[in-house]
Every structure is written in structure tokens, then in C-alpha cells.
Amino acid sequence: MELIWEGLVKAFQLLLALDPEVLEVTLLTLRVSGTATLVSVLIGVPLGAVLALGRFPGRNFLVSLANFGMGLPPVVVGLWVSIFLWRSGPLGAFNIIYTPLAIIIAQAVIASPIVTSFTLAAIQQINPRLRLQLLALGANPMQMLWSLVKEARLGLLAAVMAGFGGVVSEVGASMMVGGNIKGMTRVLTTATVMEVNKGNFDVAIALSVILLLLAYGVTALLTALQQWRNNYE
Amino acid sequence: MLSKKRLIPLAIVLVFMLSIIGCSQQQAQQTPAPPAAEQNKDVILATTTSTQDSGLLDVLIPDFEKQSGYKVKTVAVGTGAALTMGQKGEADVLLTHAPSQEKPLVESGAITNYQLVMHNDFIIVGPEKDPAGIKGAKSAAEAFKKINEKGALFISRGDNSGTHTMEKNLWKAAGITPVVSDKYQESGQGMGQTLTIAQQKDGYTLTDRATYLAQKKNLTLAILVEGEKSLLNIYHVAQVNPEKFPKVNAAGAKAFVEFMVSPATQKTIAEFKVQEFGQPLFYADAGKNEADLGK
Q: ∠ CA(A65), CA(A145), CA(A226), 5° rounding?
């Protein structure tokens, strides 16, 4: 019990004092996972829309792949991304391993299937007659897609939240491709693991509280965005 | 109206592009892209967890970066994994503590400029009650034999780290081949975590002194066997051979090796946390003969 209390006290100390190291780690976490989520939205939303609206052979297989990908283990992604990014790997010449970009790539791989699946479900839920109506009103395919995306925005924001939640909380891939390098690729989850290894449980608890606050903050913001129109309509 | 609607996807793309640019710029600030004539400024250091978990690297790395202008990417893994990284040319410089595993790499030419840096020692720790009665054992091997005979719980690292290598050597000296069971468990994790597991399960384990002292505030495990010459824990630094792996940063690695054995760094190592623990965590050894250590 003492330990938990000490950890919470430490968390508030670090937060209130705006400890530069903790601040750096927190901002990096936000930047890396935010960018990865954005990338996964750019990949996942169009892909999910195509899968939801398209009718082509192999579609069911692709849908099952996307659904399966939601549970992609971060360590497996970390391992494979590492193999590609190592100096001896096919992308070794770009010197990406152990940089924030490496973590962004791995996290985008983790989040993209999540966003794809959520988008697919959100768009498929829309009444199919809406599409016909839009076409009848003379919408071109882009306009129709945009109207559908707007119609599905509740589900799409859920997709963004699930994607962000998935990557901000993972540690396996970040540790492997990032290397937990101080001032460069140390994010909240890898820093927490390291502090536990060092036996600094109070700092570890503090970091975990900060991670929870960060994850909640972002989710709350997105939720506000999601519910905003509903409250006024 | 339509143009307004089109603005939104445009804005999304813009934000995305900006954040990518922001990322690459920040990266560029951290690791200035060298002009073609200049050397690569990133040095990848593969090392054991004990140098990071004890806090030693937090003191040494900033010094080195300030003096040399290089940026060190420290990857703290077990010694086994660090040596594998060296063997594949994935790291530039190694700081490891398993001479019996390192020597074959020197001989095969995978690593070069292999130099003694420091030592401390391994200790056998366990519950204060000492159910296997190993306290006062004549040697580490004898203590291991007692633990085995009494069927007491031993937590092994089981991760090919330097400590695990030492542990396997000691079992061999005791004439025992340990088999994973409820009395011999492998954690597969770093030293800090393994000490916590031994603590929670009332088990014995082999640890380096630095990590044990750094964790002491959380532990009731007692030092039961120490001081034997076979328990020396010896750290070497080495460059990954640039002739074998053209991609390694040879100049940066050489600078790091020189930094580690320089008199100023050796002084920092010798004084590291002496005040806090009342005893040294590491003994500086640059320039000494490995065979003379512990005499």
C-alpha cells in the first residue's frame, strides 16, 4: 500500500514540476502514436470503405484478414519490422531502425487493421438505400463516399480511438524497433518497463499514471468531437 | 458548398504531411544529417542490461556525447543478444560481460579493439533464512550443489546473458546439469526483474553486485556467497570490425572505446555511486591484465 501511495505522490511531483525528462517522453509518445494513428487512418479508412462498398472476388477473405489483423500481436509486428529495418535487412540502407520513425511504422502496422475493421463495420451499417438515393440525386462517386463517411462519423471516430488506444499502450514493438533510447525513442511504455527493471517502482507507477492520463485525455477529446453534433441536433 | 466539404480531406492530408515534416525535422535536429564529407554521427552501442539498470550509462553517455559530438543509441539487451548484434554488424560498439562468449568473436574477427574496462563481482543471493544452508560455502560451485541437494528454489535468468553464462559455468563446475522444474525456474528477463521474482518467490539467484545494490531498497534477499575469484564479473568494450561490416560507424566506435578506457572515464566509473552505497559498484581496470583481477 505504501508503494502505491509513494508512486501516486511521485506522479504528482513529476507532473507538477514538469520534469523535463518526463515531459520529453510524454510528448514523444503523443507525437509517435498520434502520427501512427494518422497514418493508419489514411490507410484504414479508404481501405475499410472499399471493403464495405465494393463487391469483388476475394472480398470476404480480405475482410477476414482485416478482422484478424485487429489482434495482431505487437511483438510479432516488432520482430518483423525489425528484420526489415536492420542494417542487414532489405530496408537497412535507410537507417530507420532505432528512430522514432521506426516506431511509427510498427505502430501504423498495428493500428491499420483496427481502423480498417471499424471503418468497414461503420460504413456497412449505413442503410444501403442512402447510396441509391445519393446516386439518384446526382452525386459523383467522391461526393457519395464523402457523404457516407460523414454519415458513419460516429463509427469512424471510434475507429480512431481504438487505433490510438491500441498503439499508445503497446510496448513490445516500440521496445524492439525503437530500442528505448534516451531522448530519442523512449516512450512512456518502454520507460515504464525500464524503471521496473531498475527497481524504481515509484517512478514506474508515476509513468503509468501519466500514460493513463494521456490516453484518457486524447480519448476524451475525440469523444467530445464524436458527441458534439449529437448534443445539438 | 462542395468546395467547403472538400476542404476537410485536404486539411487531413495537410495535417498529416505537417506532422511527418515535423517528425523528420525533429529527427534532423537530434541527429544532424552529415554532409557527404563528414562521418556518420550515430553510434549504436549494444550492451548488457546491468550497465543501464545500475544507472552507469546515464552518467557516461552524456559525457561522451559532449566530448565527441557523437550521438549514442544505447540498446540495452542481454550480453548474448548484444554479442549477436555485433556478430551481425547491427551495432557499432559493444560493452559486454561474458569473456568466455566474447573471445570466440575476437578470434573470428567479428569484433576488434577488444579492451578491458572494469569489473565487479557476481554474488549468490537468497532468502535471509537460507533454507539450503549455503552461507559460508567454500565455493560458489559448492553452494550450487547444496541448493540442488536441498531442492531449494533457484531462479535462473535463462536468457543467454552474461550472468546466465556465468551461472551455467558454475553449474558445470558443480557437476550438475540443471533441468527446468518447479525448483529451477527460468525468468527469461533482465537482472532487475529476476531479482524481484526471486524476492517474491523466496528463491536463490545469481546476480551482479551492481544491479543488486541498485535494487537493494526493494529487496530483503541477502548476500550469501561472495568474494570468490571465479565470481569475477568482467566487462570489456569492443568495436564491431568495420572490415567485415562496412556499414558500421568505425570512427564513432573507436572514439567510444577510447573514451571508455580514458583516465577521466575510468575515474568516473571507480567513483560511481560510492557515496550512495558506501562501496564501489564497479572497479576500473583499463590497461590491466585480465588474469591479475581479483588478486
A: 80
